[in-house]
Structures are given as C-alpha cells and as structure tokens.
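Dear support,

We are seeing what looks like truncated structure output for some complexes. This example has two components. We would appreciate it if you could run it in full and send us the complete token output so we can diff it against ours.
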Amino acid sequence: MKEIKLWDANVRVGRSLAGARAAVTGVDEILKALDHYGIEKALVWHIAQFEYSASEGNRLVRQLVKNQKRLVGCWAVLPPTTGENGEYFFDRMKENNIAALRFFPEQHRYLLRRRVFGEFLDQVVARRIPVLLSVKWGVTWPVIYDLLEEYPEMTCLLCDLGIWGLNRYTWPLVSSFPRVYLESSLLSLSDGGLEATVKQFGAGRVIFGTGFPERYADAAILDLLHAPLTDEEKNLIAGENLKRLLAGVKL
Amino acid sequence: MKRKSLLREEFYKQGYLSDTPVYDLHGHMGPVAGIHLPFCEPEAMVQRMKTSGVRKLVFSHHAALMAPDIGNRASQESVERYPDFLRAYLAFNPHYPGVFHRETDGWETGKKFFVGLKLLSDYHRVCLSDERYRLAWEFADSLRLPVLLHTWGGSGYDGPEQVRLVAGRYQQCQILLGHSCHGDWQEAMALVKDFPHVYLELCAVLDERGILEEMVRRVGSERIIFGTDFPWFSYPYYIGAVLDADIEDQDRVRILSGNALRLIPSLKD
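Here is the complete output from our reference environment:
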C-alpha cells in the first residue's frame, strides 16, 4: 500500500512521580521519536496534569506545544465551580494550540456529570472539542455511559481501551452516539480488534493512537499497516479522522 | 539513537519475516467469558498465523482450562485438524486429578498432540506448590516436559515465591513463566538467574515499553520465550513490539524463533 500519514491521538509527555522505564520530555525528544516512527503529528498530554495539578500540567502542555506545528495539546479540566480552570478558557485554548480535553475524575476527585459541569460541557459539545476519556487513567465504563446519556452529541474519544470486555463495552456506545470514536492503541492489541470494529461501524469511528512512550509504538502502527483493510480505511484511521475532528473544533 | 533493524524494515514492508519463522509458545483457542474474541476458532487462527509468518502455536484451549466437562479434547481435536500449525499443552486442573490420570495413561498417543503441561493456578485457586499439583509436576519432571505457568506478581497462587518453591523441587522439567510474574519483573528475572530451567515469557509483558530491553540485558535473550495469548493479542502488534525494542536482531531471532525450537525441537516437524 501507499505510505500512510499517521496522526497520533495518544502521546503522553513528562516523567511520572512513580518513575518509569520510558518517558519523553522536551520538544526535541518528542519530535525525534515522531520522526523515528514516521508520525506526522501528535495530540499530547502531560503526566503532571494527572499526578500533580491540572492547571500546572496544563501550563507545561502549553509551553510544550505553543508554536509547534507537529504537536497539539490536550488540557485537563476540573469542575467549573471551583474556578480552577481559569477565565476565558476556550480563548486560551485557541491562543495556546490546545484542541482537546482530558478528564481524570477519579484522580481529581469529582463526578463527571451534568450536575457538576452543566453549561461548560454544553459549550464543549457545541464547540465540537474532542473529549478524551481514558479507561487506563481512571474513567470507568459507567461514568462514560452516564456522561454520554447526558451529552449525547459530545465528541468523545475513548482511549487505552484494554482487552477485557472491549467490544462489549465500546460497541453499544459507538452504535448509540454518533460522535464517539475509539482510539486504536489497545484496540490494536486485541487480535482482530480493528477489523471487527471497522466491519461493524466503518473506518470513520477509529482514530489511531500509540500510547507512546508507555507502549511500543511500532506495535500499534504495524497492526494498522497490516490489517486486512482497504487503503482508504487505513488512511481514515491513521490520520484523516483525527484531522477532520481537529479541523471541526470551534474556538 | 535506536539501532537499525533489518527485521523491523522487513516486517514493515511485508507483514512477516521471511527467514525467521515465529513460534508462539503461549496461546489459547475458543471463546472465553470476559472477552469478545472475533477470530478464536481454529480455521481463522491458522489463517492469521500464516499471514503474520507464525510457523507454530502451542496453545491450551479455553475449554481445557475453564470447562472441566469439555477438557483437553478440545485442544486435541484442533491439533488433529492442523498438525502443521498447532501443538497443545495438556491443561491440568488440580481439582480433577482423575481426568489427568486418564489422559496421561495414553501418553504415547497424547504426545503427538501435547508437548507439555499448562497450569493456571490463579484461576484454579490452588497454589503451585500445593500437594494437589504434585501429580502434574512429577509427570512433567519425569518426561522433562515444558510446563507453561500463568504467573502474576503479587499472587499467592502463582507469584514468584510459589514459582521459587516448585523450581527448587522440580528441576528436570522446563518452567516457562507465562507473563513473567507480571509486574514483578525483578523477581521474575531473579528466578531465571537462579534456576537454569526457568524462562521468561512475554505474553502481557510488552504493554510496558522498555521492559524487554531490561530483560535482555539482565538475563540474556536465550532465556526469553515469545508468547501472545493469541487469539487475545494480535501478531502484528506483538511482533511489532519485539521489533520496536532497542535490542539486536540476533536477540529478536532467538526470542521469536530459536529459543522455542531449542526447548521443543519437535515443533520443527
């Protein structure tokens, strides 16, 4: 097949407080890794957003991605009532090359629901800002289901899906909510995960991710590259779907 | 800067390795309670093995492990259908020793299909060193068979402490640490260093980048076995992870191919 253009929706930067074998920190290091894997662009978040402080982690992401053409940032969000997200939130997203949001309700001790986020999430939905929810980073399936019942038009990317119950949890959501997408890093881990999902819902609902640097990026790339899918389907998953989502964000 | 890998380039290009047939020593088959496996029947599995250049899979059917009323015959039937691609482990459930007696009575026939034993202590809820396992261990030891264990860090059933006990007692068999005592990597590597008949196995290990490099550095690639839980995990993904690791191609060849043949030469047949 022709070369595919990879946009990676799931790259984490920064060193964990618990230590880790693999971490990437500065811009140069990240870009060098993207070059090695042939990845054109990446949506990045910072471990400090989870482990330390959402606002300070957001600042680190801002510093990292500002004026970078190959990096786009994700900010972490807290309940609006405490004022920790700061003023003019969406304007600041635009100024700082931030195009997606992450939520860590368990770690940051809040409930991810309308009662807590109300109109703020209505804005996120209306602005078509992708919301990345990671099963690995503490967002449970009941929380995801309940959130989407309350915000059915939310643009939602489910990340780090794991293998246990994978299709049984995700397929009802993809089937019910038109703007739910599946990030591929661990969908690819599951044998036949990509092709079975594409057969069921089309290639428009899967978005490529690696989980780098925590996971071996070649693994997710090779599973996509050699999946029994058409070139067109592979290109949608590899980058076109994410490109389209990011282009649709209204900030 | 990462080392250049010709194997990586080849797999990127064609999706299989021409001169390095892959041997997977940790597989399963059939449906399982907690996962939807889209391609878990033998026909589809063998086809997918061919596509990724996997020469042989040694597996234990989920029924053999989790449905005593079906047992090992599910594995045997699949090997009979695809002898060029499949071999099985005889699963031993310590709650039903009578079944094992019957199955091993006909070992002269059974060894055409089964190349070793599989023990799943965490699920069967019996410690590896428990008296109820003695029958299986003595059988494997007397025939110098490989024994694939499910091992998991922190488990009282098959964590590193339990492995250490049985590795000391039974030294003629080859003990494959399925999942390499997942998460308790240091203890798993210590076991391999302390016991020459103990091997690391990679299933569920490769979700953490960097660990394979550390294993190769500490115990050597000769002591690491490739396994995937296939049809749980995808071959392009798992082979891809081995190709991404910052190790030499000669290490990859040992891990993907050579070590399995050294342990079980009959896999060549």
